[in-house]
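Box 3.1 A note on notation
Throughout this textbook, protein chains are presented in two layers. The first layer is the amino acid sequence; the second is a token string describing backbone geometry. Keep the layers aligned when reading.
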Amino acid sequence: MSNPTRSDQERIYKELFEKHKGTTMAVSSESPAHKRLRFGRITDIVAADNDFTIHDVGMGLADMYPFLKERFPEKRFVYSGTEILQEYVTASVERFPDLVFHHRDIADQAFADRYDYVVMSGVFHQRRGSSIRDWEAFAQNIIRNSFRMCRKGIAFNFISPFVDFYQTQVYYSNLPKLINFINDDLSRFFEIKHNYALFEFTVFVHTEEHVRSMYPEPEFAKYFKADR
């Protein structure tokens, strides 16, 4: 197992699931309002798309699915998810038996299935007993592999370094390091949204192919690698 944080994550989230069944704390979310705001910013990435597939990595109890249906009732989409905790997968299958959920670790590898969008909400907040070095390696691996599995883009969030308090078991993102990683390993086409109530920010990373499709004019061809 190449993800050194996995055993700790499985233990922590299994305890939360068993202790807080039926509440947002079962997936380590503070309140329904926090979850809706976080989901709102994450799912902004699909706002301009009317027909798409979306894969939720670290899906928890698949709460993003009913949120998407409520927010975008006019859109056609196929939702699926991945989790490392079997209990979450089993509970999600019971809630939504017609959907596809995977018990696997995308921090270990990219898989062959492809989606228009891959999203990760709240995956990188709680490092608990993991070292910062291991946590950053885990985050980069799962983001990198998720990007390999998308056609159009990925969305994820981190806790901001600009806070008014610190907790020792929380990971506060190193923004310069994150931006350099995105540009060097993923794509130069990215957005950072740091303009909402929570002490966090949301990132969109778009594939070059998708961005290029939005700018087909010959004048813009030189800005894409295929034409250099």
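The domain at 6-227 is CATH 3.40.50.150 (Rossmann fold). The chain is about 35% helix and 20% strand.
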